[in-house]
Amino acid sequence: MTHWIIAPVVLPAMLAPLLLLLRHDQTVQRILGLAGTAALLGLALVLLAISAEPQLYRLGDWPAPFGIVLVLDRLAALMLVLTALLALIVQVYAIATGWDRRGRHFHALYLFQLMGLNGAFLTGDLFNLFVFFEVLLIASYGLMVHGAGRDRLRAAIQYVAFNLIASTLFLFALGLIYAVTGTLNMADLAVKIAALPAGDHALIRVAAILLIGVFAIKGALVPLQFWLPGTYANAPGPVAALFAIMTKVGAYAILRTITLILPASSPAIGPLLTDLLLPAAGLTLLVGAIGTLGASTLPRLAALAAIASIGTLFIALAANTPQATAAGLYYMINSTLATAALFLIADQITARRSAALVSGPRLSGLHAALFFATAIAMAGLPPLSGFIGKLLVLDSLRDHAILWTLILFSSFLMILGFARAGSTLFWNTTDQATAKPEPAALAAIASLLALLLALTVFAGPVTGWLTLTAEGLHAPQPYIAANGLEAN
Amino acid sequence: MEILIAIAIGLLAACGLYLVLRQRTWPLIVGLSLMSYSVNLFLFASGRLAPGLPPIISKTATAYTDPLPQALVLTAIVISFGMTAVIVLMALGAWLTAGHDRTDMTANTAEGDDA
Description:
Chain A is mainly alpha-helical.
């Protein structure tokens, strides 16, 4: 049992209160905050190196299923690395643009947010997942209203209310699951639900729908996506970029649920969940793509493009084959980084002109180049990884003609949407000059794009590793055995 | 006993939902609190209702009730208390900056355009 597994949760949990004590010294806060995020990236890479076999960490040495456990497997390690990479770049951007000085506790909230994210990816216990969800949400509420402002506060109220209702539903689902099975440990649930007596099938089905519904709210799946555009469009730019990983928490939870806890192979569930998820995912993609065509402001365009990419991701996850899951994970890495880059470049542009997509002052060519590259990654055009991701997803869905049509058609719509927005922003200009580009901020955005480029160049090794990840997810016996439980 | 608890859970959830659908921040907050009370009762009932039995080991006890739901309820209460505090402060901030307590937004504020 290695103690490294709990470090990504403990480190921010210790560092954030320290930053609260140092609230009067912005420089020290910046240094410690950056150091903390960099250390998290180091930790995540260490864990990635040892994640080939599922590993268990027992809190307080209580054996599963009685105690709370953290489980490290390839998927958890991947999510940790992705989170830390994104967090580090976004934090550099926030410091470069001075966003972190518009409120007093940016870095402390940021670390609490990372603590919640890391915990949610590592935990092997459903109730603990709920607790970490709340940790990351309460930090995100604070980040959402960072810098205040009338519209931001009101958008935040809606966001908080929506998520509190989701949390209530999550608790109802947990209560039902506990009442039926008498356990909340994920591996134990996988064993118990597979062997449920027929009389309990209806109850566990209700709980399953509730659970998936809650995760779909977190992941912004149509028809539960209404909170996202208003929230993301009104959040501070760097915060919206960090939120790109928040929807992926929902995707992660759904993936865990349909592969481990409530798989299609268990008689109580069958194809129930995937039958619901697949059309919802297709609709999400369509709504997002049409939305990018109709968006009237740049932050909203970014939010709707994010919804479209979530749709593609969920299509791959809901197809529920190892190949589709691997493709979905590859697309997820691309979509997270590209969405974050899009929100950051949108923040750069809206700082220099009005957010509305109408004629405005002239922007520099650097902004145009970065926007163009990000749009290529988001819409899934060659040569960046978005194209490879979509290709892999299409390849894994060979016998779904409708989904093929949907993915290709929505890519076309997104290209149109981005072209319309780009030509208005950069060509339909007056002769007014705008403020000079901030090199450090643009370097942060460029480094996100560099990561996408690396993802493209190393697509072979990455997909090889992701295929192993997906196979491990679809054959969860080692994961269950790591918990010290026997699968029958 | 079961019928009483079930009615209480249903009533709390229904009243909570009604208040959440009002487009004012204060009823919204009260509604969210009522919903969290209903889910706390539900969690409590998920460990089976057994009156008069202790959840912790004692020398005089003849039988025990399930302690885990009680721990879950405690956690849920603490979390919902914290969340209520956060949303109260946010609602206060929104009311002070906007001058009214409506939770809905006009079309252009929802678009993220603060011009």
